[in-house]
Design brief:
This protein has 416 residues and is an alpha/beta fold. The chain has 13 helices and 13 strands. It has two domains: 165 residues, Aspartate Aminotransferase, domain 1, CATH 3.90.1150.10; 235 residues, Type I PLP-dependent aspartate aminotransferase-like (Major domain) (Aspartate Aminotransferase, domain 2, 3-Layer(aba) Sandwich). β2 and β3 form a beta hairpin. α2 packs antiparallel against α10, α3 runs parallel beside α10 and α11 runs parallel beside α13. The longest helix is centred in the last third of the chain and has 23 residues. 44% of the residues are buried.
Length: 416
């Protein structure tokens, strides 16, 4: 198989060294180089277009991380940017709110099955934490049962420093797809569970992304009802990507509260906590939430225009069609080259992981080294995304890069 030389990342690495002098680690969290393949991936991006990004050294990549999910259409979406500029001319940060807030909230109520009332915020962590606080206020209970990743706030970052043990003790994790595990925890803590928060399309920590097993979401809904617990769907990733009404609409299970973000505004920072009026109304009395910047309207204009395009152009159908082909080809190639790897996820959110056997870390490192050198921007530890502006040619090139990478992995680390 033809070898591809290492990319020139001189400018990116120079900026990274400079950044480390300015900020702890140079940059935060999942954007740090150790979450990719150190020395092989760019650290600084110059610009994006369609479904591509270009780094500060001029390397062009098919971007199938999509900024970890917000980019559902593509980069440089003129219609969205024009809507934002029009709103900007009116002003966008005031003591009070603007009419556009009502328009966006009504649109979300029209689209999302669980939405009777809406609160707009900025980030996913904002609204997952808001939903948990609402659930605690509504139930007068404290314990949270969670599954997977729900943000960076104290209640959901077990294993990290700076968080009081007493806070962590108020959250317990259950296994995605395992109803018995969830019910056992509900029984053990009966009378003190405020809510269950679950990502409808599973994102268990350190495991592949998983479509919900048949009957699983229905079972979670039934257990929440049985034990009188508020059910929260974390739709930060799935909202406006698996259907216009989220995973709850596609899979036909309605939670009490749900949270949306990422793809809602194609990269502009906005999120939403929505739910049953009876539960949301605790914000009128006993539960406090406030922020200087939650009412800023530029992101609302972006969200309304993004949602308009998603509906008008049947974007989600297009993404599913491309994603189904991509997943199918990845499965075929893994079988062809007999590489111990797994294709998981759903068509809008594909993932390739390496089975935990001999040399799996080396296989993984080599695979993702070869794909980035061929201009495919995917990540070893996080599922990818399909965007509307990914062309059929982009998908073909991505599949070709994956085939060449798998062929090299199979040659260097053959199965015994």
């Amino acid at each position: 198989m033809k070898q591809v030389p290492k990319l020139n990342l001189e400018n990116s690495m120079k900026l990274y060294e400079e950044a480390k002098k300015l900020s702890p680690g140079g940059l935060l969290g999942i954007r740090r180089p150790y979450n990719f393949i150190e020395g092989e991936y760019p650290v600084f991006i110059d610009h994006g277009y369609d479904g591509h990004i270009v780094d500060v050294d001029g390397n062009d990549y098919i971007d199938m991380l999509c900024a970890y999910g917000p980019i559902i259409l593509g980069y440089k979406e003129e219609e969205i940017n024009d809507a934002v500029k029009e709103q900007m001319d009116k002003g966008f940060c005031f003591t009070m709110v603007q009419e556009i807030q009502n328009k966006l909230e009504q649109k979300l109520i029209d689209l999302i099955p669980s939405a009777e009332k809406v609160v707009l915020a900025k980030t996913g962590s904002d609204v997952t934490t808001m939903a948990v606080r609402i659930a605690r206020g509504y139930t007068d209970k404290e314990l949270v049962l969670r599954c997977g990743y729900h943000g960076w706030h104290d209640w959901c970052v077990e294993g990290h420093g700076g968080v009081p043990k007493q806070t962590l003790d108020m959250t317990k994790e259950f296994e995605y797809g395992d109803l018995d595990d969830l019910e056992n925890q509900l029984k053990e803590n009966d009378g003190n569970v405020a809510c269950i928060i679950v990502t409808p399309v599973g994102h268990p920590l350190a495991k592949p992304v998983m479509a919900p097993p048949e009957g699983y979401l229905e079972g979670v809904r039934a257990l929440a009802d049985k034990y009188n617990v508020v059910l929260i769907f974390d739709e930060i990733r799935t909202g406006f990507r698996v259907s216009m009404g989220g995973a709850q609409q596609r899979y036909g299970v309605t939670p009490d509260l749900s949270v949306f973000g990422k793809a809602m505004a194609n990269g502009y920072p906005i999120s939403a906590c929505v739910g049953k009026a009876e539960i949301m109304n605790v914000l009128e009395s006993k539960v406090f939430v406030s922020s200087t910047f939650f009412p800023n309207s530029l992101e609302m204009a972006a969200a309304l225009k993004c949602i308009e395009i998603l509906e008008r152009d049947q974007v989600i159908d297009d993404i599913y069609r491309k994603g189904e082909r991509f997943l199918s080809e990845c499965e075929r190639l893994i079988e062809k080259y007999n590489v111990p790897a797994t294709v998981s996820g759903i068509p809008p959110m594909p993932f390739i992981t390496f089975d935990k056997c001999a040399n799996y870390k080396e296989r993984r490192t080599r695979f993702y080294t070869e794909t980035i050198r061929r201009g495919l921007f995917i990540q070893p530890y996080h599922h990818g995304y399909i965007a509307y502006r990914h062309t059929e040619e982009d998908i073909d090139k991505a599949i070709s890069a994956i085939e060449e990478a798998l062929a090299i992995v199979a040659e260097v680390y053959p199965e015994k």
